[in-house]
């Protein structure tokens, strides 16, 4: 290892100890707390995660508390974060660990549902102080810039797809082996893996940002090849774009009014909700009935109601256009009303009328995905057309 690298690693340690942001999961970084925070932080911004993490730890402070919780309660604590398989995997993982013991190595953590190489490396280095590598988007940016790592491919030539895949995996392998050699070298210099890995992530998140990195403040500036060549923004090279898949979702917001109090003449408003089955997107969460489930086609005349809302959102590489029409239950064709009655009797745990509470959208025990929340918010606010993305 060159002397300049040793100095840079020590400088990185001092910089982190001076400038690290205070984040709830950095206090008392037990394996459980690091595990939960890292899973929440996948695809989600730090500022969004903080309140979710705090609430989660109040309700499920230990692996055992999480293992003992009902899935509906777990999903309700996740509602709004998106990618709900993460919550289900955490729950499954907690059940497994509560029945045995906490993993103590990267290999053991990799056997826990939903834990991949990044999360295993983060838990082992941050909570267990082992010199294990991590590579996320922030670390990739720092490594790719310091070493001017290239993906080495022409992304425009479609005939190169097999070669592209091979080169993509060799680029990823290079990043991981570089991260591993760095954390091990830092460990020999007595820089703790917890500090070193978090410092790399912090550097990528704050100074080594995608545009206009703040190189003048950077502790790795002396060894950074991209800075030397003034090519910071050329690295990391962009990923080949995945093919996008268009999906159309047609749903109905079926409402029913009912007088439920003898004291007041006001009527309560109820919404029909269905629970997404196993294997579907957002499995276990509550959704508005899809038209295919109701047994209607896209024509408003077939189901009554014509107020229509369109929202657009994304799940991985799917681009989804969701159309929702609002319709009173009594306006539905009799065959559909009968179908709803039958489903309510047949599957009471999966089909429900839920009382509408406009202030917090719905009662707390109903876990809703982001698209439904967006639709209900629009309904409450007067039903305007808009577009948006699920994070
Ligand atoms: S010198 Fe600049 S480009 Fe290089 S690692 Fe530091 S912030 Fe990133």
Helical content band: 40-55%
Per DSSP, the total helix count is 16
Distance between the termini: 41 Å
Encode the helix/strand succession as letters.
HHHHHHHHHHHHEEEHHEEHEH
Main sheet makeup: 6 strands, mixed
Low-confidence stretches: 385-391
Please compute the radius of gyration using only Cα atoms: 25 Å
Mean pLDDT: 88
Note the beta-strand portion: 5-15%
How many E-type strands? 6
**Oligomeric grouping of the chains:** single chain
The coarse overall form would be elongated
Summarize it.
This protein is an alpha+beta fold. It contains 16 helices and six strands.
Describe the structure.
- This protein has helices at about 5-20, 30-40, 45-60, 65-70, 70-80, 85-100, 105-110, 115-125, 135-145, 160-190, 195-205, 225-230, 290-295, 300-305, 335-345, 370-380, and strands spanning about 245-260, 270-275, 285, 305-315, 320-330, 350-355.
- By secondary structure, it is of the alpha+beta class.
- Strands 1, 2, 3, 4, 5 and 6 form a 6-stranded mixed beta sheet that branches.
- Helix 1 (about 5-20) packs across helix 11.
- It starts with a helix and ends in a 10-residue tail after the last helix.
- The structure holds iron/sulfur cluster.
